[in-house]
């Protein structure tokens, strides 16, 4: 009888040991399964990451001179938020010159001009995709003098006063600011064509006018004192040192100053180019940058 109890104890011990072994195996299996599941999940995430990883893109922008300070900051912000997109050396020139270069086959992805008329020309010659055209922001035309100078003028009529002997104006054929200036001068009888192009300055005033190849050159010649006053954009006060505003040219004396943007017709990166234009128009941080440099939001 004693031996039977001992045998039973041995059998019970073996059963307990077996059960413990089975439990350990099951526990190990659960841990392994969880690890495998996590690994599969991580693998899936990595796989998804690879799928959504976007190919590097470099955008080429042709932009009006007056965007020279603000646009690079917006570009840097865009790259910060979209690391796969960088920008080539942006070309800042007179809007008319940019349109001419595009027509001649210069490669670009985006065109931003300082007037509707120059963008209209780009539409007419097939340089841009008209369906992507949007108005980005507006600007004011102002008359400036050298900072600290004693020149006085508060209206368009004052531009032709005897105290003012030199007036810088952009070439209307290439510089929209020049065309806007001429339109305004037409309203006071100092220019012969209402469109701001193709006309002549009145006798006497014509001897005062110094034509410049860009609005930037207008600002620079004013800042050095080579001319007494010049017609520039309000945003140019943020671009150039040594100039100060005399007065804002009344907006009803010239066509609205708008900056249209569009994707270039032969762009190899049309989708990304369109996304950047949308960013310029709608991103809150980008809008702050435009406003900081004097551009009015549309």
Describe the structure.
Helix content is about 40%, strand content about 20%. About 35% of the residues are buried. The strands form 3 sheets. A 6-stranded mixed sheet has the order 4-2-5-12-6-13, with helices on both faces. It has a 5-stranded mixed sheet with strand order 9-8-10-7-11, with helices on both faces. The protein has helices spanning about 1-50, 70-80, 95-105, 115-125, 175-185, 215-225, 270-280, 285-290, and strands at about 55-60, 60-65, 85, 90-95, 110, 135-140, 140-145, 165-170, 210, 230-235, 245-250, 260-265, 295. It has 8 helices and 13 strands. The termini are far apart. The longest helix has about 50 residues, at about 1-50. It is globular, with a radius of gyration of 34 Å. The chain has 3 domains: about 1-35; about 55-135 and about 260-295, D-Maltodextrin-Binding Protein, domain 2, CATH 3.40.190; about 140-255, Periplasmic binding protein-like II (D-Maltodextrin-Binding Protein, domain 2). By secondary structure, the chain is an alpha/beta fold.
Query: What is the H level of CATH, i.e. the homologous superfamily of the largest domain?
Result: Periplasmic binding protein-like II
Helix run count:
8
The unreliable regions are 1-10, 24-51
- What number of structural domains do the residues give? 3
Mean pLDDT: 87
Radius of gyration: 34 Å
Total number of beta strands: 13
- The CATH class assignment of the largest domain is Alpha Beta
- Named CATH topology of the largest domain: D-Maltodextrin-Binding Protein, domain 2
| CA-based shape | globular
Instruction: Please trace the helix and strand order, writing H or E for each element.
Output: HEEHEEHEHEEEHEHEEEHHE
> How much helical structure, as a percent, in the residues?
40-55%
Largest sheet: 6 strands, mixed
């Amino acid at each position: 009888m004693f031996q039977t109890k001992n045998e039973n104890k041995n059998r019970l011990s073996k059963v307990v040991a077996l059960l413990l072994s089975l439990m350990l195996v099951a526990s190990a299996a659960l841990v392994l399964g969880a690890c495998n599941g996590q690994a599969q999940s991580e693998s899936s995430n990595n796989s998804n990451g690879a799928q959504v990883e976007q190919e590097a893109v470099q955008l080429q922008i042709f932009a009006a001179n007056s965007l020279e300070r603000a646009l690079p900051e917006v570009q840097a912000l865009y790259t910060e938020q979209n690391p796969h997109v960088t920008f080539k050396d942006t070309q800042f020139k007179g809007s008319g010159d940019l349109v001419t270069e595009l027509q001649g086959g210069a490669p670009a992805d985006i065109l931003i001009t300082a007037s509707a008329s120059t963008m209209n020309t780009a539409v007419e010659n097939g340089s841009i995709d008209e369906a992507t055209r949007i108005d980005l922001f507006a600007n004011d035309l102002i008359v400036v003098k050298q900072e600290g100078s004693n020149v006085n003028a508060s209206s368009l009529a004052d531009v032709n006063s005897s105290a003012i002997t030199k007036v810088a104006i952009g070439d209307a054929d290439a510089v929209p600011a020049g065309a806007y200036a001429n339109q305004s001068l037409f309203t006071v009888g100092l220019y012969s064509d209402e469109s701001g192009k193709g006309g002549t300055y009145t006798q006497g005033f014509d001897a005062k006018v110094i034509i410049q190849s860009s609005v930037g050159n207008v600002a620079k010649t004013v800042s050095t004192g080579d001319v007494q006053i010049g017609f520039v954009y309000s945003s140019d006060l943020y671009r150039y040192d040594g100039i100060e505003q005399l007065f804002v040219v009344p907006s009803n004396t010239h066509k609205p100053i708008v900056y249209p943007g569009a994707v270039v017709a032969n762009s190899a990166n049309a989708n990304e180019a369109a996304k950047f234009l949308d960013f310029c128009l709608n991103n809150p941080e980008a809008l702050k940058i435009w406003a900081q440099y004097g551009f009015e939001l549309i």
